User: Fold these one by one.
Assistant:
Number 1:
Amino acid sequence: MSEIIGVIGSGTMGNGIGQVAARAGYTVVMRDVNDEFLERGISAIDKSLQRDVDKERLSTEEKQSIIGRIKTTTELEALRDASFVIEAVTENLAVKTEVFKALDRITPPATILASNTSSISITRLGAATSRPDKVIGMHFMNPVPVMKLVEVIRGMATSSETYNKVRELTDKLGKTALDCNDSPGFVSNRVLMPMINEAVFTLYEGVATRESIDGIMKLGMNHPMGPLALADFIGLDVCLAILNVLYDGFGDPKYRACPLLKRYVDAGWLGRKTGRGFYEY
Ligand SMILES: NC(=O)c1ccc[n+]([C@@H]2O[C@H](COP(=O)([O-])OP(=O)(O)OC[C@H]3O[C@@H](n4cnc5c(N)ncnc54)[C@H](O)[C@@H]3O)[C@@H](O)[C@H]2O)c1
């Protein structure tokens, strides 16, 4: 069997990471809290690979063998033989801390534990384990199979050995690693989220319609997608969680989440994944 990569969480990011790792030849063990979420994850992978089959970029046999390399489980113990584990669970410090503590107990001491967190401190996640030198951030972008970047974040205690192995893994996954120090929101979300939040404020204040706001940013700034459509794509709950991390981390009111964003999250209108966000899907 090829080297094993564990993926925790089979949601938007987890299933994307699982797909990319299996496509690069790794055996993937993907863990979520119940079978329904796992089935949804596998079905998303199937659909995404099928698009490549339809475009003749992948054969049906290759697709089957990629999916065949992905084992799903609800048991954390199944991660026992993984050399890397990439965590992609809900953006919540308490949930992630529990996952890291459990992974620290279950996996061999040499296993590298990476988090795909968008904003939570890698240093804090590392401190929850007995191996902070082997804890690192691997921040993939959405959709994972398409986007080239992995923001690689070293915590205070992350060793150079861990960092080098993760750079190597990123190369093998066909992605480009760019470095960043551990700071709230890293670079990507510290720059992106205030823009999205400001777009929500312009909608909230009635400055323009959702179509105008997105159209202005697309046509005027050459962005491939408007900020409101992008927020729907990322998930409005994820956006809110990241803004809260920035707000708490810097103690600066400029990161205050727009009340309209909070209201959408309260309503369960989380964007594409729930069929409704700033747009309907
Ligand atoms: N959505 C994006 O655009 C994006 C981009 C980059 C990074 N991220 C980050 O990736 C992570 C996951 O985000 P997502 O958008 O995939 O969220 P999601 O809600 O689509 O998926 C999260 C999954 O984690 C599962 N989960 C929760 N607790 C778990 C546990 N203890 N063990 C196993 N599985 C568990 C949930 O059941 C769910 O299936 C977050 O940290 C987020 O900030 C998201």
Number 2:
Amino acid sequence: MTELNIEQGPIRPPSEAYSLLLRATRNCPWNRCEFCRTYKHEKFGLRPVEEIKKDIDAVREIVSEIKTFSWTQGFGGEITPPLANVILQNPERLPDGFRSVALWLLNGGQNVFLQDGDNLTLKTADLVEVLSYLKGNFPSIQRITTYARAKTVSRRTVEDLQALRDAGLSRIHIGLESGYDPLLQLMKKGVTAQEHVDAGKKVKASGISLSEYVILGLGGKAMWREHAIETAKVLNRINPDFIRVRTLKVLKEMPLHEKIEKGTFILLTDDEVVEEERLLVEQLEGITSTFVSDHVLNLLEEVGGMFPEDKSKMLAVIDHYLALSPERKVNFRLGRRGGLYRSLDDLLNEERWNQVQTALERIETERQGAVEQVISDLMGSFI
Ligand code: SF4
């Protein structure tokens, strides 16, 4: 159908699943975090503004091609699920960028996520130019978001950030990971708790929406308590618009794996991660953030809501899980990671409960204790 393509980076936040992915930089300028493998062995680079603009031009042409295709297929220029199916199942191998634009249009064509790991490394004037060009070409765009490192943001002025906001940048996603300095050092995050606070406050002062990511389980057995308490303190000082949690899962390619092998970092069990999450939520005070557990690795997706009004509801979900019998806990853990459950109430679905129980019994018959490995493998398959 087309030779047009746009460059795509490897990741995006879960909340940007339906956004247009547009690469503004390549890879990560830091690339040393112990728990991250995304850009390992990849070199960081700024993309020239003209190159990014060419991708924006390509998106415009792809949109035009898709609309023409819609007319030829009898869909009247509309992008509907049946048309998207035709496009996505096209026997010709379509470039990733083309599929990405088709999905973006199908989902309203309103949100854009600028990839990769730290786009505030671009000069403010360059990023303003890109944002303006993007909005100029697609007036339908409502939201433009990006990842940025707190260290980089802390070096920007509020005026810089305001210029980005005025040009269309709506939200910055920052990997806070933890607010506990010894843990940030251990994980080679390259940023301090104070820098996280400075960066977060600047983003808030600029009027750009702020999303802070916390890694549940990152403290391990040695630091889980401090991780929860100090992270809550940092978040309480920033009061971000969103607090998003994702659970630690360590793969072989991550530097942290070596620490686990050597026994210098001991992972928490699922139940301990939930205890840690409880402490984090309990310690969050005086904020008006929205708490989101939308990452597939999280055991309790339903721990979410607005602070302060939903705090007791979130704690109740956690306490509900912690009060389950060991048999129900392991059934839930396997069912959740196997995609059969989304919430604790799903345990009441007899058919699904039995399905998970049958799988559990089969796994345990084949090899006693193997269920932990199966759950771990399932989590590994999500990332
Ligand atoms: S800053 Fe982000 S992208 Fe870069 S290594 Fe750390 S976690 Fe990975």
